[in-house]
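#random but structural
TW: two for the price of one
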Amino acid sequence: MPRISKEEYYLNIAKEVAERSTCFRNKGGAIIVRGDQIVATGFIGAPRKTKDCFERGECLRDKLKIPHGRNYEICRSVHAEQNCIINAARAGVTLFGGDIYIYCKNPKDNIKRDSFPCFICKKMIINSGLNRVICSTKTGEIKIFQVEDWVKEWQEKDILDDKFQFGKDLNLKENFKDDLG
């Protein structure tokens, strides 16, 4: 049997990390690899020592009919990418020059989703000094972004011109009104 690629290997680990997620809307996991070593992991979940959506029995964003990819300040959870970066900081681990691998799926039917980071996570990824973002997609392909390309793109265009926005396709499918068209 042929050996799987490093990207597949690390995304499979991010998939397992995602199983710890406590979000009704999205099951996501992230790992950061630096020098071919996993230095941090993170999954979608409420801040430490606070009640998550499972414990509360509801999703506040669903209750308020907030579309995917919008109004993240009204959410009990911290994204997998954010938790991964935070966990590295808690451990005193540098991320500079590393890569982040992101996996997500729908927790209701276990169907893969495009695991593109939201704008908040993209900004954190840029500022953390990571080099690449490796994302699983709903088609099973692997999408690799160079962080320096995001920086160049945002220097030339507005952040809202970004082609790969988490949730845009989900809003259409789930009949949420998409404010950006």
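TW: number two ↓
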Amino acid sequence: MTDTAPEVLIGVDGRAGRITLNRPRAINALSHAMVRAVDAALRDWEHDPQVATVVVDGAGERGLCAGGDIRAIHDDARAGTGAARDFWFDEYRLNARIARFPKPYVALMDGIVMGGGVGVSAHGDVRIVTERSRVAMPETGIGFVPDVGGTRLLAGAPGELGVHLGLTGDSMTAGTALACGFADHFVPSAALPALLRDLAKLPADEAVARHATEPPADPLSGARDWVDACYAADSVEEIVERLTATPGEGPGRAAATLATRSPTALKVTLAALRGARRLGTLEAVLVQEYRTSCHCLETADLVEGIRAQVIDKDRQPRWDPATLAEVTPAEVAGFFAPLAGRELRL
């Protein structure tokens, strides 16, 4: 791929509209222009009789999409240009469009699928994972809060698994993604080219049925007891206390992971997940997420988290506040405050 190649490849193959995210060196991280291009294609195809199915995949071998372009978000958070707010406004509207798209929307969630990659895939109605899939909402590690409708997906996972995955940012393998409602079918990665050929000729359900096989086991299936017991707590502090007091490698690893995450992001994420359960609809959740995302731009943690993980890569973020005890309920509530004159419109 040359530097002048389109960031999204859009075309029609037989009965299938094809969307390929085309920034493989960045694991197809989403730019604002990519979001607009995908949205325009869906609008065009919604009433196009030639297009019976839409298929979304990613160029290269590493994954569908590693998320939004967080370097650009870092730069905007420092400069205050408003570009990140505009990006999220259009991105979340795209997430809603995908969820209500009237034709089969097939997402090939092969390889890395994180953050914004979940937003362009897991709201579709035919979501395919492979043995290479690693699906995650890792936002708390950069001082951010799960978005792109991710809090609704996490809130809908069985028991407290979504709270565990949302707070830690841990990756889901194919089995866990299926068990937690982020995916529908398992297809071996070697079968994806044949699946794409069949999607160009056959109805989506028939094409997928030809290639879907029994998924691998869910590594979290044996963790429900301690996950549900620990993450049902009312506060992040109590979750950490319960994890620390619970014997076993899993609880200990989770507690250690939470100790590295932004204390503010952890508390806001827990409130967002509990709120998403009450809100119900994707549209209402996206409005809530737009508020939390925009308020994150006003914090030091988002800039610092991206610096530590992506810019300098020292993996030593200096969170402010540095402890859970210093994050007050009033500060958490502020992340959910309405945005005067600039609420998300769906």
